[in-house]
Amino acid sequence: MRNRTILHVDMDAFYAAVEQLDNPALRGAPVVVGADPRKGSGRGVVSAASYEARAYGIHSAMPISMAYKACPSAHFLPPRFHRYHEISTKIMDIFYSFTPVMEPLSIDEAFLDCTGCGKLWGSPRETAEKIKAAIRSETGLTASVGVATNKSIAKIASELDKPDGLTVCDPGNEREFLAPLPAKALWGAGKKTVEVLHTMGLRTIGDVAASDRASLEKIMGKMGTHLWTLANGIDDRDVCPDWERKSFSEETTFEQDTGDDARLELTLMHLADTLSRRMRKSGLTCKTVSLKIRLEGFLTFTRSRTLDEPVNDTRSILDTALEAFRKFDREGKRVRLIGIAITGLQEPENRTERQLDLFGCPQEVADDVKKHRSADTLLDSLKERFGDKVTRATLLKDIHS
Ligand SMILES: [Mg+2]
User: Fold this and answer.
1) Cα–Cα distance, 76 to 233 (Å, whole number)
2) How many domains would you assign to the chain?
């Protein structure tokens, strides 16, 4: 089997880093995001601690009262999930722009399978460097990346050099790479499991790898076999992009409720544009388009339509949303929020350009396909370069007429 290139990308102290990004006064200071410490009598836990706070021994999941005792002068902040999600969406979009085979593990980390992307992004290390640079330039935040031939090692590797780290485990070097690391670094080894390993005298991953598989299984059951396999550098699990469950949505809340149809339709155009761009970046199409509309007084309605063919062009998404909007009788009420959601996401059967690049087709063929890129793709690349100022004249005309 050809060696895979799997990256695990993990944002550094994500919530705390976002707080420091948004408020320069917090940079370089200990920041703890989580429950209210109430001067040491608070309940609840730490959600995230900046590296400055970690210097005081504060870490996530620690009781907030303990964190307060460790560093009463730290900045204790409540989480702003809306903001973290906003940045998370940006980060996931960056990942998708490198490979469609992306599996988010949480709000701030994901696996990326970049096997065969060499022609596009260079060596595995160069690919990781480009991803880190893109995250930094588009969000101002740092991420740590682990690169390996499988998920388990990539996940372990991303932890080794935090923050702003990059660790590569070269193909063929898996066992040597893992051997000196503590057993608790194994992905999936919880506290109890590690205690059992310790009682067996197994302290490092190398110890686990060299141990007798049968006796490990006898004591720990399936978990024993699993850990022994991982410790030996073997992990066949795929990076699973969850097409089926995944949905994209964009919405706008107006500062003041509006009854202006032209303004509402223009907003739908921007939403359709953003959404379809995200889909194309990810190499996805959708089958269902839903319009969400919230009226003054907070009554919320959705109108969905499933299309005959999967689409990802702006025109189809916009037309479907516009049709639903024009049919909807809001009885003269003004609109507070309008949005579009797309579901039933799937990978198109012929992902031409990206696919051709990924699987190293001859340059002439790739060039020919590139020549026939759709107007949408062209517009996407213009927007990459010039931002949202590039507007779609034909769509605008249609809306104002
Ligand atoms: Mg993280």
Assistant:
1) 41
2) 3
